[in-house]
Every structure is written in structure tokens, then in C-alpha cells.
Amino acid sequence: MDDSSASGTVVRVSARYFDGRSTRPHTVQVRLAQGQLQIDGETVRTQVPAAQVQWPERTRHGPRVARLPDGASLQSLDADAWDAWRRDTVHADGWVVALQQSWRAVAASVLALVLLLAAGYVWGLPWLAREVAQRVPDGLEDQVGEVVLAQLDDMVKPSRLPADQQRAIEAAWDDVLQRHQKAQAVHGRAVRPTQLLIRESEIGPNALALPGGTILLTDDMVRLVQNDTRVLSGVLAHELGHVQHRHGMQTLVQIGVLGAATSLVWGDFSGLLATVPLWLGQAHYSRQAEREADAHSVGVLRDAGISPAVMVTLFERFELFRRCGDDLLKPAAPDAKGPAEGTQACHKAEKQKTGQDDRQEAAWGLGFASHPADAERIAFFRAAAR
């Protein structure tokens, strides 16, 4: 391409030439003619095939550069003149450079990237975790469950419940499980094996489903529902849903992926900024898992001939526990005929509580709960019981 204007005048541009061997600049005039980049100055006179010249993408600020063979280069501090000369004689910038120079295009690109990352965070990561978890061999999941159980040794101890009470709970759950297995076998669906462990624990009224099928039921949960085996079967049916859907392995996969991502972004996974998005991510996914487990528990209870309404009783007891605390877990006296001592103390304390206390409790508890709101779950189980 020739660098002549419409009037036939040869177009040149001033630049500084560096030969690649020293830092001394040479003032030159540059023009393009017959496929050659001609460089003329008092101390320099050379030409380079235009095809061998590298033209880096221009930036909004800074000098303009052309890279020549053997380490030589041209630089121009007059960006406007260089850009006009290059546009008229070499070639116009590509669309990528044009987008880079547009703040609207940059803003749109950033927004698109944020939306893409958000979509991957909300839908992509759960899907990936679910697919990976379903393909984990049972033997490997069992080993993971054993490791997790070993890590809980400091938090769980042998149950302090009477032996006959434990046997009654195990027998009731075994009956529910057998009925559920028979009902599922008719449809050709297998129920994943589980192992029930009743343990004393510092984590309060709770039940946990570990990878591999181990279900932990705490003594305090038994005390909370006043040893109602039908309610406890509903609790265990919920945990069976976690086992069946392999939520434990999904959680481990999600933690691994989120941990790797946050460590790459922040550089230190142990820092607060790294752990916050990880914690928030797991809170969201836990709510999704709880809803799946709730739906699964309804099917288990129906197979066993138990109304899903027993789960409403569970949440009513949890509401009392939030209001009364550990007093609700006090056992009844051996010869008592009425409510347990803790229930009586709780109702007495209820009369002394104010509406302000209730509002403070709700504001603190629901904002950071990883489970769906109790009202939502109660409505779900009441509808399922109809």
C-alpha cells in the first residue's frame, strides 16, 4: 500500500527509531511505499518489509509502537499523528481494539461476565456437584463418611438415653424403613443403605446424614420431641432423603470448587474475604438440599402409613426450643403424668416473655439460616398431609 494522500503528497510521520542494541533514540521520518516501511533520518536510513512489522494494539494513553525485526522498534509520542498516519496508510484498528476503547463496550463486557459467573454459581455449580456426586463409587463415599465421623468424635459421645428407649426408636425406624423399601421395590427403585447412630452431642437437637449413609440422631432431638417415635421417624426420613440424593458428597464437591475459586481470587483461602463467599454459597445450596430432603421424607412417611403432619409437630417443638432454650430438654420425672418438666417451665417462661423478645429472636435467627424458613416448611408438610 502506498502512503500517498488524495493530492498525491506522500504522507510521513515523525518517530523515534531504536536499533535494539542501544538505548539511544534516532529521530526519523517514516513512510510506507510499495510494501516497504521506509525509515529516514540523519543517522539512520533503512527499510523493512511491511509484512515483517508488528503493530501492537493501541491503547488509550501512552506512546505508539511498531516492532521491527532484530529487536528494533519505532516509537511516537504524538499519538494522534501516528494514529492518523497508520489509519490512512497501514490499516484501521480491528473491532476488538474499537471495543476496548469504548467504555460502553467495556461496561457491557463486564456485565456479561458477571452474569455468566452468577449463572455458573447459581445453576452450573449445583449441577456439576450433583453429577460428580452421583458418579462417586460407593466404596469411596463410605471412606469419606468414616473420615467425617472420626472428625466428629470430639462432638459426639455415647448416648445417655435408656437402652430400651434407644431400642424403641431403632425398631420404629426399622419398621418405617422396611415399609419404604418394599414400596420402592415395586417401582424398581433401590433405597440406599443407612446406619442409625444415637449419640449425645453438644450440637443440641439435631440429626445429620453423613456421606456413606450414616445418620446421627442426637439425644437432645429425642428429648425435644418427647420421645415421639413417629416424629423421630419423620426426622430420619428427612435425613434418608439427604442420603438418597447424596447431598453429603455434593456439599464436599461444592466446597472444593468454591474453595479453589475463592483461593484463586483472593490468594488466601483462610482469609475472611475468601471464606465469606464460600459460606454464603453453602448456605444457599443447603436450602436447596433441605427442600429435596423434605419432599423425599413425605414419600417415606406415606409408604410407612404415617401422616407428614408429624413434621409440623417437629417445627412446633423447634419454635418452643427457640423461645425456651435448654429448659425444654429437661426430662420428665419418672412418675410424672403430665408434660415434661422442661415443657412446664417453658410455658411458664412464655408468659413472662414480651413481643419485643420475639421480634429480636426472629430478626437474628432467620437472616443467616441455611434451612428454608420454618413457615415455608410447615406449609409444605401441612399441604402434603391433606
How far the N terminus sits from the C terminus, by CA atoms, comes to: 83 Å
Instruction: Provide the residue-averaged pLDDT.
Output: 80
The neighbouring-strand order within the major sheet is: 4-3-2-1-6-5
Identify the overall geometry.
rod-shaped
* Radius of gyration based on Cα positions: 36 Å
Strand content: 5-15%
Structural class: alpha+beta
Q: What level of helicity do the residues show? A: 40-55%
Write down the domain tally.
Answer: 2
Walk me through what this model shows.
This protein is of the alpha+beta class and 386 residues long. It has two domains: 13-93, Roll (PH-domain like), CATH 2.30.29; 137-384, no CATH class. The chain contains 13 helices and ten strands. The strands form two sheets. Strands 4-3-2-1-6-5 form a six-stranded antiparallel β-sheet. A four-stranded mixed β-sheet has the order 7-8-10-9. α5 (163-186) crosses α9 and α8 (247-266) runs antiparallel to α9. It is rod-shaped and about 105 Å long. The model is unreliable at 4-9, 335-339 and 351-370 (pLDDT under 50).
Strand-helix topology:
Elements: E1 13-18, E2 26-33, E3 36-41, E4 45-49, E5 64-67, E6 73-76, H1 79-89, H2 95-100, H3 103-134, H4 138-151, E7 156-158, H5 163-186, E8 195-201, E9 207-209, E10 214-218, H6 219-224, H7 229-244, H8 247-266, H9 272-303, H10 310-324, H11 341-350, H12 355-367, H13 374-384
Helix pairs in contact: 3-8, 5-7, 5-9, 7-9, 7-10, 8-9, 10-11, 10-13
